[in-house]
Each structure stands twice: as structure tokens, then as C-alpha cells.
Amino acid sequence: MPNFAYRGRDSGGKAVSGQQEGMSPAGVADLLQGRGITPLSISPAPEAAKAAGGGSIEIQLFKPKVLHIDVLMFTRQIYTLLKAGVPIMRALAGLQESSTNPAMRAVLQQIRESLDSGRELSLSMARHPKVFTPFYLSMVRVGEMTGRLEEIFIRLFEHMEFERFMREQVKSALRYPSFVVTAMGIAIVVVNIFVIPAFAQVFKGFGSQLPLMTRILLGFSGFMVAWWPVLVGGVAAAFFAFTSWTATATGRYWWDKTKLRFPIAGKIVRKATLARFAGSFAIATRSGVPIIQALTNVAQTVDNDYIARKVEGMREGVERGESILRAANNAAVFTPVVLQMIAVGEESGALDDMMQQVAELYQNEVEYELKSLAQQIEPILITLLGILVLILALGIFLPIWDLGKVALKK
Within 84-148, where are the H helices? Predict the structure, then answer.
């Protein structure tokens, strides 16, 4: 653990200085405040700075990160320890020692130091926004207020496990279509740059008018051979421009809205988003979070900026005194099934149960849709591949066929 040199004043106003071990300057500040010292400056100790000087670039380049699976396992393990009656500090110490990710160990160390200084668990976690989402922090805060922290952790674990399952299913379903589309793209490039130019030399000796399809293929192939650096640069520039645009608030909003309109994948994205909305809303309301705060938290977990803004619009409607059903109707993004379940939940006072049923319903539907996604896309891919083969056959073999007929007549 690195050393930090500090200067500060104690409770009597006397100037003090020294060195303190810690994972970060913030962790050292927490430790000093816990000892009644107000820090004025904290900097790496000279020997620590000298030791880190030679490898700072390498450390920054290859610094490990806290992954989703790390937070998932932490949530499950802390629930088990708290349920068994293990104190929170001892539980965090045990998890820190058993963690295999250095980045996660550092986070747990800083959380322990923050708790030692008197901060609450939610505030300690809030100092790591890249590790714990606002929804996660809000739920932990509710668990602290209600005294049901272990129950909150198991619900968070189930929620995160569902999100992980959805991501893995989507990746698995898109793996085969992506491979086929990539292979087709490579085949088109190879044929136009290497194969068709070889046939072009043969066609020049025919001395007759070539078919239209052949002339189109030869023209396109010649364009690719002559301008391939420009095409590669254009594709790279388009990709960079698209990623930069989707990184903005406006671009992300329109791209998330467009994804919902895709022919096959759009309905899967919509159902997955609604399942995430219903599951998050159920866990929030069941844990005692007020409706307005629950809608605010849920808007941060749906993973779709378009739907998130609609949920924020629902929150504003509820703040004006509208019912949840009316606010959901005005959002115009929910299916009749969701609206019906919201209506029943409001009338019966079991909105959290209805939302949980909606989440389970759409989770099952998404699982089925993803399993059959490859079967739905396969006919489209076969059709595109057939069209590509037909174009190549007509463009390349028609002149050879015509030459053969002329030779037979002679």
C-alpha cells in the first residue's frame, strides 16, 4: 500500500505532518479525519513517487478495472455474509482478501476506510460512480433506512443477474449472423479486387458489347481497385462519426429510438427494455422507495435513452397528480399488457407484484425470441447470399456463355 505525506491541523488547531498508508488521497483523508486531523495537503511520499515514476505509463495502460461480474459476485457474497450475521466491516475485510481483482480489492479497501471515518455505506459506495450505478446506490440507501440491507442486496443480485443474462443471450444470438455478414463483406471485397479484374482482361478480347450486368460489375470493381484507400478511409470516418454522434445526448436519443423500429431486433430490444423497466420498478417499490424516486431511479437503468426520457415524463406526470396508469398512457411506449397490469396493480394496491409478473413475462418472451433469432435471420441471410451469387453468375458467366454460343455457330 503506498505512503502519502500529509500536512494538517489537529482538533486543537496545532499543525501536524507525517506519512500515512492508504490506497488513495481520499482514503488517507478519511483516516486522518477519523483521528481528528483536518488535512491541508496530501501528496505521494517522495520514495513512493520515485518508485512509481518509471512505470506510471505502464500502470495506466494496463490498470485492471472492476467488471460487472465483480460487482455481481460482491453483491451475492455480501448478502450471504450479512444474512449470517457477520458485521459489515468484517464482511468487507473478508471479501477484500478473497477478491482476485486488484481493482475490486482497492475499492473495498476505500469503502472500509470511508466507513471507519463515520460515513454510511451508501455514501462510501457513492465515491465510486464507475463501479456502482445510481440505481444500486439508491437501493443500498433504502436498505440502510429500512434496516433490510441484506434483502436489498439479494434483490440487487437477482436484478444484475437478469441483466447479465440478457446481454449474454443477445451476444450469443447475434454471433452467427454477424459472422455470416462479415464473411459476405470480405467475399465481396476479394471478388471485386482480385477475381473480377482477372476476368476483365479476358472480356477485353471478346470485341463485342458486354451484357449490362457485366459492365456494372466491371465498373464497380474498377472503382474499388482505383479508390480503395478512399473507401477504407470513408468507412473509418463514417464509423468514427457515428460513434461520436451516438456519444452525444441527441445522437444517443435518436439512435435508441431508431433501434426500437428495426424489423426483427426492434421488438426484442423493446421487450428487453420493458422487462428491465418492470423489474427495476418492482424491486424499487417493493423495497419501500417512493413512486417518484422509483421512477427517477428506473430511468437510469432501462439502458435506452428514449425510453428513459419517457419514464422521466411519467415521473413529471405523477408529480402533477396524475395516476401511474395515465402517466404511462401518455408516455406512449408501453404495450397494452403493461398498461393493463399497471391498472390492476393500482386498483389492488399490488403494483410491485404486477410489475414483477410483467418482468418475468417479458423475460421469458425475450429468451424465446433470442433463441429463435438465428432462425428468423437465416432466411434473410440465405436470400442475400443467393442474390449475391446470382449477380456474380450473371455478370461473369453470361459473356462466357455468349462466347460459347458464337463458337458453336462457327
Answer: 88-98, 102-116, 121-126, 134-146
